[in-house]
């Protein structure tokens, strides 16, 4: 057996460093294939669930779409206006088409990291390939949907996103399941390359099911004068979710921001963090997280800033709001300075709604529940995040719905 | 007829008595001034009038506009027509001043006009409530909100402390204009606001009680000249001291 294969087969039994360990053999790899079809002709229940994760099957206000159900790619196309500016296809197709794609494959995330990366390598089901060509600015978001339609299915995607030099784009990824799916495992490997002077805004919305397990493994490499903005939204219950995406600010003046909005409800276990490694001169990082916990949810909100260049700076801000005595939020902000001159800072706060704030608003005539809703909505204010305009209202609406449900 | 009547009100917070059989009556159409040293119970009185839950009423009664409100929740009192401009309002992240305005004005107040009167720049409405507001901004924002509430009875807790002359002028005019023909209660330490607002009666608080009442200018001048230390020698205050 070649050395690498051996290492992988070893990794398949290796629990992840964080999060509850899962028996991956308990999930099924079998699912009937879906044939490709226009994304607008997908069944209504699928379209509705996709919409709940920010994905529009009518393709209005979207530059291109990738739609995968279980392991089948059902749709992948770029709108006519954007042809020749960006590409969207499956990673299997891309690796076949472009021999050079290999040098981006498994380069930021190691397949030997843990059993989930090993699983994605050994049992790989497509994933999306998005490439924005050099100097192209795509005004409308590109969208991709990773959908699970079969109960207890294990979906393992590997995505590759390349923003060529000087390009600019927004990507929306929605991950969700059919209403009849209650349990399953989604493993998603994502490797981002944001090249010189490019700007990429990536927004991922997760809308899973109460007994679903999710293990994304994400890394991004950001070159000189490039900006990578990663927004993550998870507002619906999930059994367990563990992810700790990392961005390497390798280039001079590279910029990274991670924005996370979490609502842990029911028995959800969320272990979500963001890492920024500052390697380039003048590199900057920002991590902002907002988490609310209701019912019996447990949230671990992590953050790690690593300063490896003397001229680098990053800040981490994590706020948690507890709305139940049986829930918990554990904020774990970490700073690691490796060279003199790097400036790393953090602020973290976890607590319940201040009685003083409620009383103040009640003195203005708000009822107690109106006051609470207003405060929670304010706490989850997405105005501070760099969300694409077309998503701002949708995400605000999702947050409002969550708040209404949480009370 | 009185807009506000407080009879023999005793209030405890965290087991400690903060109001001690207090009596106060504000007739309709009048503005009264509340004076008293720090810790005499002025802010506790406001919190009790609003019915904040941590202020436990041990005995006594609060009536507003002929209605017993002693056991009403805060929001109902506000809806009946009590409005308070707080001295130290809490910052609330993500909640915009404009959002709160919309809720309390209910489409019945001209936002631009009111913002002009209280010197609130329109972009200020998009800011997080009380978050990083300067002293003057806090006062103006509070008055802006209270005026938007259009209360029958407005309480202003030290609207004149910590503000510069220019802001004081804006605040003074806005409050004075609003209180014409309405009823109100002013709390002031320095009395600057009294240059703008014609008050009818002043009350001096000691030990959670009203020690004396009278003509505002007269009482205020005496206190400014002699201080509250002098008041403590007054037989009325001494009597209260024994009663507490």
Question: Which key phrases capture this entry?
Answer:
heterodimer; A: 407 residues; alpha/beta; ten-stranded mixed beta sheet; 7 helices; 17% helix; B: 244 residues; Rossmann fold; six-stranded mixed beta sheet; four-stranded antiparallel beta sheet; 8 helices; 36% helix; 30% strand
The overall pLDDT average of chain B reads 94
Number of domains of chain B: 1
What is the count of helical runs of chain B? 8
Can you list the strand order of the major beta sheet of chain A? Answer: 2-1-5-7-9-11-14-16-18-20
Which pair has the most extensive contact? A-B, 25 and 26 residues
Kindly name the structural category of chain B. alpha/beta
Number of β-strand runs of chain A? 20
Radius of gyration of chain B over all CA atoms, rounded: 18 Å
Oligomer: heterodimer
SSE series of chain A: HHEEEHHEEEEEEEEEEEEEEEEEHHH
Write the CATH homologous superfamily of chain B.
P-loop containing nucleotide triphosphate hydrolases
Walk me through the topology.
The complex is a heterodimer of chains A (407) and B (244).
Chain A (H helix, E strand, L loop, with lengths): L2 H9 L32 H8 L12 E6 L2 E7 L7 E5 H7 L17 H8 L5 E5 L9 E7 L4 E11 L4 E10 L5 E12 L4 E9 L3 E12 L4 E8 L5 E4 L2 E4 L5 E10 L4 E10 L4 E11 L4 E10 L4 E11 L5 E10 L5 E9 L3 H8 L5 H12 L9 H18 L1
Parallel strand pairs in A: 1-5, 4-6, 5-7, 6-8, 7-9, 8-10, 9-11, 10-12, 10-13, 11-14, 12-15, 13-15, 14-16, 15-17, 16-18, 17-19, 18-20
Antiparallel strand pairs in A: 1-2, 3-4
Helix pairs in contact in A: 1-4, 5-6
Chain B lengths: L1 E12 L2 E12 L3 E5 L6 H9 L4 E10 L2 E2 L5 H7 L1 E4 L6 E5 H9 L5 H7 L10 E2 L5 H15 L3 E5 L7 H15 L3 E5 L13 E6 L2 E6 L1 H17 L2 H9 L1
Parallel strand pairs in B: 3-10, 3-11, 6-9, 9-10
Antiparallel strand pairs in B: 1-2, 1-4, 4-5, 7-8, 11-12
């Amino acid at each position: 057996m070649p050395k690498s294969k051996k290492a992988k087969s070893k990794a398949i039994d290796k629990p992840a460093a964080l999060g509850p360990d899962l028996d991956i053999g308990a999930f099924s790899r079998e699912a009937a294939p879906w044939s490709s079809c226009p994304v607008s002709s997908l069944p209504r229940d699928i379209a509705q669930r996709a919409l709940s994760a920010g994905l529009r099957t009518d393709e209005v206000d979207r530059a291109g779409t990738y739609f995968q159900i279980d392991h089948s790619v059902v749709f992948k196309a770029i709108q006519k206006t954007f042809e020749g500016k960006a590409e969207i296809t499956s990673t299997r197709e891309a690796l076949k088409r472009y021999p050079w794609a290999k040098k981006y494959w498994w380069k930021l995330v190691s397949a030997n990291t843990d059993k989930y990366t090993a699983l994605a390598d050994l049992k790989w089901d497509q994933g999306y390939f998005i490439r924005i060509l050099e100097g192209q600015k795509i005004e409308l978001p590109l969208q991709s949907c990773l959908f699970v339609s079969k109960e207890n299915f294990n979906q393992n995607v590997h995505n590759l996103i390349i923003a060529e030099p000087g390009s600019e784009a927004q990507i929306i990824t929605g991950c969700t399941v059919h209403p009849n799916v209650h349990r399953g495992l989604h493993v998603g490997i994502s490797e981002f390359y944001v090249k010189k002077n490019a700007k990429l805004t990536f927004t991922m919305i997760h809308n899973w099911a109460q007994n679903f397990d999710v293990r994304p493994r994400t890394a991004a490499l950001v070159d000189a004068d490039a900006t990578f903005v990663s927004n993550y939204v998870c507002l619906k219950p999930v059994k367990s979710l563990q992810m700790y995406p990392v961005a390497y600010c390798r280039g001079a003046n590279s910029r990274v921001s991670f924005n996370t909005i979490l609502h842990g409800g029911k028995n959800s276990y969320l272990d979500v963090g963001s890492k920024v490694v500052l390697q380039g001169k003048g590199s900057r990082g920002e991590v902002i997280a907002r988490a609310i916990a209701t019912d019996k949810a447990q949230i671990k909100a992590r953050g790690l800033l690593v300063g490896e260049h003397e001229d680098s700076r990053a800040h981490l801000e994590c706020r948690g709001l507890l709305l139940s005595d049986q829930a918990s939020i554990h904020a774990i902000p970490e700073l690691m300075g490796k060279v003199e001159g790097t400036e790393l800072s953090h602020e973290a706060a976890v607590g319940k709604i201040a009685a003083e704030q409620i009383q103040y608003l009640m003195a203005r005539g708000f009822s107690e529940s109106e006051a609470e809703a207003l405060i929670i909505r304010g706490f989850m204010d997405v105005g501070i995040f760099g969300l694409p305009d077309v998503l701002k209202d949708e995400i605000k609406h999702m947050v409002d719905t969550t708040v209404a449900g949480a009370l | 007829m009185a807009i506000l009547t407080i009879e023999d009100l005793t209030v405890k917070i965290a087991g400690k008595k903060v109001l001690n059989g207090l009596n106060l009556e504000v007739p309709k159409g009048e503005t009264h001034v509340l004076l008293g040293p720090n810790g005499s119970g002025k802010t506790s009185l406001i919190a009790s009038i609003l019915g904040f839950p941590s202020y436990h009423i041990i005995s006594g009664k609060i009536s507003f506009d002929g209605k017993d409100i002693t056991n009403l929740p805060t929001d109902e009192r506000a809806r009946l027509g009590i409005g308070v401009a707080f001295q130290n309002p809490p910052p609330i992240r993500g909640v915009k001043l404009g959002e709160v305005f919309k809720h309390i004005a209910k489409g019945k107040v001209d936002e631009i006009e009111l913002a002009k009167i209280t010197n609130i720049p329109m972009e200020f409405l998009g800011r997080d409530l009380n978050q990083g507001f300067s002293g003057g901004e806090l006062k103006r924002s509070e008055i802006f909100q209270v005026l938007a509430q259009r209360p029958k009875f407005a309480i202003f807790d030290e609207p004149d402390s910590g503000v510069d002359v220019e802001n004081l002028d804006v605040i003074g005019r806005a409050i004075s204009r609003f209180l014409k023909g309405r009823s109100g209660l002013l709390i002031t330490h320095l009395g600057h606001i009294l240059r703008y607002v014609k008050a009818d009666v002043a009350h001096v608080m000691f030990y959670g009680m009203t020690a004396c009442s009278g003509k505002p200018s007269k009482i205020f001048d005496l206190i400014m000249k002699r201080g509250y230390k002098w008041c403590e020698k007054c037989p009325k205050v001494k009597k209260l001291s024994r009663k507490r």
